[in-house]
Amino acid sequence: MLGELGADVAERRYFSDLPTEEEIRRLASLLPGGVRDLVSTRSRRFRELQLEGKQLTDDEWVALLAREPGLWRRPIAVKGRKVVIGWDERALRELMS
Fold first, then answer.
1. How do residues 72-88 score in pLDDT, each as one tens digit?
2. b or e along 1-21 (b: 16 or more beta carbons within 10 Å of the residue's beta carbon)?
Protein backbone atom coordinates (compact mmCIF):
# COMPACT_ATOMS: atom_id res chain seq x y z
CA MET A 1 0.00 0.00 0.00
CA LEU A 2 2.78 2.45 0.85
CA GLY A 3 4.32 1.96 -2.56
CA GLU A 4 0.97 2.88 -4.12
CA LEU A 5 1.13 6.16 -2.20
CA GLY A 6 4.49 6.95 -3.74
CA ALA A 7 6.47 6.11 -0.63
CA ASP A 8 10.09 5.04 -0.88
CA VAL A 9 9.79 1.84 1.16
CA ALA A 10 12.64 0.00 2.85
CA GLU A 11 11.21 -3.32 3.95
CA ARG A 12 12.62 -5.28 6.86
CA ARG A 13 11.67 -8.83 7.76
CA TYR A 14 12.08 -9.16 11.51
CA PHE A 15 11.99 -12.96 11.43
CA SER A 16 15.18 -13.15 9.37
CA ASP A 17 16.77 -9.79 10.27
CA LEU A 18 16.20 -9.27 13.98
CA PRO A 19 16.53 -5.70 15.24
CA THR A 20 19.14 -4.94 17.84
CA GLU A 21 18.21 -3.79 21.32
CA GLU A 22 19.47 -0.31 20.37
CA GLU A 23 17.19 -0.21 17.32
CA ILE A 24 14.25 -1.29 19.46
CA ARG A 25 14.97 1.41 22.04
CA ARG A 26 15.28 4.07 19.32
CA LEU A 27 11.94 3.04 17.77
CA ALA A 28 10.25 2.80 21.18
CA SER A 29 11.39 6.34 21.99
CA LEU A 30 9.11 7.59 19.19
CA LEU A 31 6.01 5.93 20.62
CA PRO A 32 3.72 7.35 23.31
CA GLY A 33 3.58 4.03 25.16
CA GLY A 34 7.24 3.23 24.60
CA VAL A 35 8.38 -0.32 24.04
CA ARG A 36 5.03 -1.79 25.12
CA ASP A 37 3.45 -0.26 21.99
CA LEU A 38 5.58 -2.64 19.93
CA VAL A 39 4.24 -5.80 21.60
CA SER A 40 1.42 -7.76 20.00
CA THR A 41 -0.56 -8.94 22.99
CA ARG A 42 -2.87 -10.90 20.66
CA SER A 43 -0.09 -12.89 19.02
CA ARG A 44 0.27 -16.63 19.34
CA ARG A 45 3.82 -16.16 20.64
CA PHE A 46 2.59 -13.85 23.42
CA ARG A 47 0.23 -16.62 24.55
CA GLU A 48 2.87 -19.34 24.19
CA LEU A 49 5.25 -17.40 26.43
CA GLN A 50 2.41 -16.86 28.93
CA LEU A 51 3.05 -13.13 29.12
CA GLU A 52 -0.51 -12.11 29.98
CA GLY A 53 -0.46 -10.17 33.24
CA LYS A 54 3.34 -10.24 33.58
CA GLN A 55 4.92 -6.98 34.75
CA LEU A 56 8.12 -6.75 32.71
CA THR A 57 10.45 -3.77 32.76
CA ASP A 58 11.22 -1.89 29.56
CA ASP A 59 14.63 -3.55 29.49
CA GLU A 60 13.02 -6.98 29.75
CA TRP A 61 10.57 -6.16 26.92
CA VAL A 62 13.42 -4.90 24.73
CA ALA A 63 15.45 -8.08 25.30
CA LEU A 64 12.38 -10.22 24.59
CA LEU A 65 11.55 -8.36 21.37
CA ALA A 66 15.17 -8.68 20.24
CA ARG A 67 14.93 -12.47 20.33
CA GLU A 68 11.20 -13.11 19.71
CA PRO A 69 10.05 -11.61 16.39
CA GLY A 70 6.63 -13.20 16.83
CA LEU A 71 5.89 -10.65 19.57
CA TRP A 72 6.10 -7.63 17.26
CA ARG A 73 3.04 -5.69 16.19
CA ARG A 74 3.24 -5.31 12.43
CA PRO A 75 3.57 -3.61 10.08
CA ILE A 76 5.55 -0.67 11.39
CA ALA A 77 5.88 2.40 9.18
CA VAL A 78 8.38 5.10 10.14
CA LYS A 79 8.86 8.49 8.53
CA GLY A 80 11.20 10.80 10.35
CA ARG A 81 10.02 10.82 13.96
CA LYS A 82 6.47 9.63 13.12
CA VAL A 83 5.45 5.99 13.48
CA VAL A 84 2.32 4.07 12.51
CA ILE A 85 1.88 0.53 13.77
CA GLY A 86 -0.66 -1.80 12.16
CA TRP A 87 -2.83 -1.58 9.05
CA ASP A 88 -4.49 1.77 9.70
CA GLU A 89 -5.00 3.04 6.16
CA ARG A 90 -5.96 6.56 7.23
CA ALA A 91 -2.94 6.89 9.52
CA LEU A 92 -0.62 5.47 6.86
CA ARG A 93 -1.94 7.94 4.27
CA GLU A 94 -1.40 10.80 6.74
CA LEU A 95 2.12 9.58 7.42
CA MET A 96 2.91 9.62 3.71
CA SER A 97 1.43 13.06 3.04
1. 999 898 988 999 998 88
2. ebeeeeeeeeeeebeeebbee
